[in-house]
Design a protein that fits this description.
Length: 174
C-alpha cells in the first residue's frame, strides 16, 4: 500500500481528491472546506471581543458603585434634615427657639438671634454640616418658617439638601 494513491470522492462538488496515506485521515489531499474547528486567529479575535465586553461590564459596576455611594450620602443628609424637622414639628409653637445640637431629641439651649426675627443654629455631625433657621412671623403674623440645610462634599463638589416648613401659632387665631 505504501506509495499507492487512493481516490476519494468529495461529496460537495464531485471532484476527486487524492491521498497518499491510504485514506486513513491524512491532511494532504483533504479539501479545507471539510475541516472543522477554529483557526488561531479566529480564537484570538473572539478573546479580544470577549475581553472588551468584560471590561465594559466592569466599568458599569464601577459607575454603579459610585452612584450607590452618592445616593447613600443624599439619603443620610435627608435623614438628618428630617430628624431635625420632626423634632421642631413636635415642639409646642412657643418653644420653637429651643435647640438640639447633639440630635438626641432633648433641648440643650436656644437658637441664637441672627437678625431681627431670625434665629440660627448649626452643628457638624461628621462629614455633614447642619444649619437651621427659624423666622418668626414669617411669611405672616402668627406663622413661623423653619428651614434646615445640610451641606457636605461629594467628590470635591459641594452638595446641599434643604428642607423647610411653615408652622402656625395655634393661639394666633383666637
Amino acid at each position: 500500500m505504501a506509495g499507492d494513491v487512493i481516490m476519494l470522492r468529495d461529496r460537495v462538488d464531485g471532484e476527486y481528491q487524492g491521498t497518499s496515506d491510504g485514506g486513513l485521515g491524512g491532511r494532504s489531499g483533504i479539501s479545507p472546506r471539510n475541516q472543522c474547528g477554529f483557526s488561531l486567529i479566529e480564537a484570538m479575535i473572539a478573546m479580544v471581543i470577549l475581553t472588551v465586553g468584560c471590561l465594559a461590564v466592569v466599568g458599569m459596576f464601577v459607575i454603579a458603585d459610585r452612584a450607590a455611594a452618592h445616593s447613600a450620602k443624599w439619603d443620610q443628609a435627608a435623614m438628618l434634615a428630617r430628624q431635625l424637622m420632626e423634632w421642631k414639628r413636635a415642639l409646642p409653637f412657643d418653644q420653637l427657639r429651643q435647640d438640639d445640637r447633639d440630635g438626641d431629641g432633648v433641648a440643650d439651649g436656644e437658637m441664637g438671634p441672627a437678625a431681627g426675627d431670625r434665629f440660627m443654629s448649626e452643628d457638624d455631625p461628621g462629614a455633614f454640616h447642619r444649619q437651621w433657621e427659624l423666622r418668626l412671623d414669617h411669611p405672616a403674623a402668627g406663622l413661623a418658617t423653619v428651614s434646615v440645610m445640610i451641606d457636605w462634599q461629594d467628590g470635591g463638589r459641594p452638595q446641599r439638601f434643604a428642607l423647610g416648613m411653615v408652622r402656625a401659632d395655634p393661639r394666633a387665631g383666637s
